[in-house]
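tool_log.txt
---
The assistant was asked to compare two proteins side by side. It first ran the structure predictor on the initial sequence, then on the second. Raw inputs and outputs are pasted verbatim so the downstream comparison step can read them without reformatting.
(1)
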Amino acid sequence: MGLALMHHTGLLLAEIAGLLLVFGGIWLAAAQIPKMRHPTARTIVAGTAFAAAGVLLIIAVHWGHFG
């Protein structure tokens, strides 16, 4: 017996993943501004957001009947 998600839950996870991608992209761009503080930390946050988005998309596609 495998893990199953409702179709709506899969869509919600995909939407959250999309928001994380947008957030990560903006945060990564902000890390490249020369006068911003902590560019390395901003890059780490952006990378973590991209990784979380990828995990959520995998869950949504595999178990959420999405796609």
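(2)
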Amino acid sequence: MYGSAFIKRRLAAQRALAEQQSSQESVSLPKGAADLFRTSKYSDITIVCGGQNWDLHKSIICTQSDFFAKACNWLSRQAKPARIDLCDDDDSAAVAAMLYFFYHGDYRVSDDHSDDFLPMVLHVKLYVMADKYFNERLRRAAFAKLAVDMYLGWKTNAFADAVAEIYAPHSGKHDELRELAVMRTRGHASSLFRERKRYAGFRAMAWSTPEFAADVARALATGGGIKGVPVKAKA
């Protein structure tokens, strides 16, 4: 059970998220797009990843992603079947969330908010994937959700998992994500680095992730962010 302090923080964070989402660029989805995603009716392109297939619609995915637009144009010119096999490195759960986003303007996460699961890692993967597949709206949505979950869940095991994902080589280097992770850590460093069993997983992650440890050390020494420049952490 979460206490009243957690509930207050959650409400404040939800308000911050709502403000961020209201400022995002809106998208006009075709009427019934959600039903098309659910039923695959009138589909004209198949997306494949991790053994999963999605029968989708060029008019929806190509208008939201230059990657898919170029891929579909190439398939058409080559008279090849309308099928796109995504990279094996792509996480199929994140791909599913991205495709869902194309049809709904948002993506779903589990309601389970235990210490072992907050959807932070999914947010990180979607941020990176949005950059790869050229969808700025998804990138901003993923960042806004990650900022809220890190604000609420810095005490959880999921926080350490998300930081590890941000700094993983396969994620590339995204200063905005790293800045957020470092600022959240800096704000709670006295607790996270204390020799307490509760934060043992976080400390183990920090010591095994030299770039993150160096960024945090720099932030603590300078009062700034990952480059030593003073910044205000985002809500």
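---
observation on (2): DSSP finds twelve helices and three strands in the chain. Residues 10-23+106-222 form one domain.
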